[in-house]
Specification:
single chain, mainly beta, 34-stranded mixed sheet, two-stranded antiparallel ribbon, 4 helices, 36 strands, elongated, disordered C terminus
Length: 411
Amino acid sequence: MKPSACFLVLWSMFACGPVRAEMAEKAPAPVADSANAKRFPDPKVLSKNVNVADFYSGESTYDAAFERAISYAAKRTSVVIPNKVSMVSGSVFVPAGTYPIRRSIVVREGVRLFGASKSASIIKWDGAGGPALIMGAPPLSPSGAEVAQTEFSNVAVEHLAVVGGKMAGSVGVKFAGCIRGSRIQDCQILNFGINVEGDGSYGFEISDNFIHDAVTNNLRWSSPTASTIQGNRIDDAGKEGILIDDRSGTEVIALTISNNIIQSCRRNALKVEDAVQATIEDNFFESNCLDEQGCAHVLFAPSSEVKPKKSLSITFQGNFFTPGPSSRHFPNKANNRSIEVRNSRAVSLVGVVARGFQQKDSATGSRSGVLLGSPANKLMRVDRVFSRGSLFNGSLSPAETSDSGTILDVR
């Protein structure tokens, strides 16, 4: 063999090898079989991304395209990494564009559904109640059968928009039984009855989203455990912006709500029922309680007044509360509070600014921007709090402040 020919052979072996490997990672377009059905590549081939556009066959909506793409990714997941614990192993990419759907998209265990950005890749719900997206379903065996399990790790929805039609009773994204590694991140979810609805789940993260314009709640979550709501902007809800309850029958444990902007909710910005332990830190609350009197930006309360449960520990740190412009807030700020905690054994309030609210207590006649405990809590720490009106602790005497506010240091 001539030296030049030998060089070409060696060059093709070493230089072109990675190129061929990269090409193998791309999901090829589907081909039609004799029954005109869709047949897809062998799921044993691990690829970085599956593109939902490759699974579209000209239908009027993208329901079938999403189902095919996610089923392909879920099959590959169970084949390549059958005992995965800490990683997403199948990804479905949604390119920039608008994708109308009428059936719920089910995102299975180990599958990451992601778009180009939360303003560019838009899933448009044209169905009835929904949910538009369901997070939490078993992976599929290579034959297409569901693997029997009730909890689902590494289910992810990221970098896309989910848009509804402002229908009461509709749901945008619903998750249940999702555990470690599962998340909703950098999405825009809007115009549903409830934009995001969760049931149970632990180790779940809702972060860096823009969730807004809900008929009822922007986020309703039943009994989260060791989970995080962080860095979101949550605007304009017909009732509570965030409602954390115990519909599933278990208590709220180790919930962290931090670095969010929550504003323009008709009722409470945040309502939490039966929390064993919760941390509320570094959030900005503005122009909430728009339609309600005797309301609070943040309310911790028992789910049942008949047999009220006691929260063990509630921590507020570094939050800022303000009524916002009076033209938006109407005249209710004199009859509402920044914080009200009704059912906790221990409350810590550190580095909080509570402006403008000073509701009158019917029993004592005192006005209070913050009410901690009714009846009085067993333990309370208040440190570096700016509150207009009173800081009031159940049956204890209120710690009065001037109209301009003072720094309280009560330990």
